[in-house]
Design goal:
two-stranded antiparallel sheet; about 60% helix
Length: about 350
Amino acid sequence: MNYNTYHRFRKIEPTLHLFFWVMVLFYPYIKNFGWEGDYSWNLGHELLALLFNMIPTYVMYWWFFPQKNKKFAIPKVILLFIFIETVYFHLDSSFHPGDIHPRWGMFLSAIVRYSALSVAFFGLYSIKQLYQKQLEIDAVIREKQVAELRILKAQINPHFLFNTLNTIYASALDKEDKTPDLLLKLSHSFRYFLTEGQKEHVSLKKEIQHLKDYIQLQEERLSNKIIVQWSENIDNYAQNIPPLLLISLVENAFKYSSILRGKNHQVKLTITLKKNFFSFSCENPFKDNALREIDPNWKENGIGLQNTRKRLELLFPNCHELDINKTNNYFRVLLNIKL
């Protein structure tokens, strides 16, 4: 159940009411149509009966059903039914001059009729209440999800900062000329965090540019130790996507590649978007025995992948696949999302 469904229901509700009362108005005529003598149709009489059917029905619908403590309202309803039927009895008698009907029979018939109409409208009232309750539940769930997403986004900043400052710190110790450039790229990344990262969605073009900035930062840091193979095939760069969704996956690839010995370790990154089907893949070399060289605080910090999993579950329930595996000394990540 969502707001649009409930809104559509509220828009057609007056039509449902009108259709119902039109059926009530013409029901006696339709019921007796074709019988010998047919039904003695009198529009004034039928409209009067319709009015005095509607009054108690809507009293129940708008006043009695919303009551939290209905048992104290029942005596008032009974008295109101008696009063309405008394007034109707006197007005209706003008359409039946000379007819004598037992009053108790008229009252009993009225109570049964009012009760039947009230039951019908109670069904409609119950449906509306179920819709409203579901909307309230959905609103609470959305608020909870927004709060969780804010927490997850907040976790990304210190995680990214920790890793990147390590990069700049190492560069500064070596007194390398590229340290100012690294600081500039870091400032660009934080500008993205503070502006675009706080939005619900950004264009895929901006998200890709942010990833490229981060990759360039790592390439400058790792020099010829890492070779990045970047591939993108996008049919709509304006497509919206949650910001900072992929950075943890990319960061993870560099984290484990940077501790390997040797040179020219390949990190393969591929992004595609075809007809709202988004796919991201990341592949990097990985060796279990190299994990011993990672700083324990960094190694045990599992925020990155855990963060991404939780965000995907909240943002794309039942319409995403995240496959992570380690085979043949390679760490592979494949993410598919139906946007």
